[in-house]
Amino acid sequence: MPAIPSLITQLPKVELHCHLAGTLRPATLAALAGKYGQPLPRPVEELYVYRDFYDFIDLLRLVARVLRRPEDFEWVAYEAIEDAFRSSNVRHIEMSFNPQYFIPAGAAYAAQVEGLVAGIEAAERDFPVSALLLASFDREWSVASANETMDLIVGHRHERIVGIGLDGPERAGPPARFEDIYRRATRAGLKKTAHVCEDNQTLAEAPPSNFDACLDILHCDRLDHGYNLLACESAVHRARDSGIYFAVCGITSVAANRSRRLAAIERMTSAGLQVTLNTDDPAMFHTDLAHTYRHVLEGLNWGWDEAKRFSLAGVDACWLDAAAKAELRQDFLCQIAALEAPSPNHETV
Asked: Which residue range is the domain that position 229 belongs to?
């Protein structure tokens, strides 16, 4: 029996695959574009309607041009956490941001971090949510640019930045190009993830071999997406045996691919892969984490047991320290028990 929607909304959740640039409310993006004299590509009510995957990527580039001052980053970080908590009872979030995107528009790395941390700290005062940051690199930018950005990350270490990521279209080249960046991250004590085997790209562009590179060359601790590895049986077996977590996303920018995405998530979980549910770019994909849970659970005819497994998998896969993770898990178990307890005010599970 499908899970009850109201309980899914109340279920405590962890968000591990969320790009800051994809969290901007359309009105916020329009306001920031106006502030800096940047034209919108279409009316604000149609901003987040895309021709294809690469049109979506172009809109992310617009965001890069309108986040310039610490207060801009503070604004969007606060709203991202507020929206996640209010819509979906997200209790821990790990947001990715691409420092490379914002530097050309005049946002120094230190200013980016200053604003993001201020937004996080303000949100943590207002909502029962913890937040960490991942600094990501875009594959379409040069390795030299990534190294320069890594200099900034290592040289201005902040406790909120716990890891690095690799995103952007995989057609730009294999993950091994960034081997040195990931070695530097390991030496700096940073966790590592990467986008791999995305299904919005062809098998030639995002092949299962990229998964092997992420394990063997980049030594990732967690991975984002992973769907195309299903084309290779040995990759599936290796993914299962490694125990690595995949931060998958139930909603994609390409609406025509959503049924295929659901089928991939079902196959990944059925094959024994460790999977957490996430939004990717919630505002830009017209979703939130509760909506994503409902979309996946209802689309696959899954129920409350699967919802609870996804909830707790998010805790297990997150990059909080051991003590904070244990405390978060206990809090989740208490919230889940309260939701399951018989009450005149609760629907029966």
From this structure: 5-340
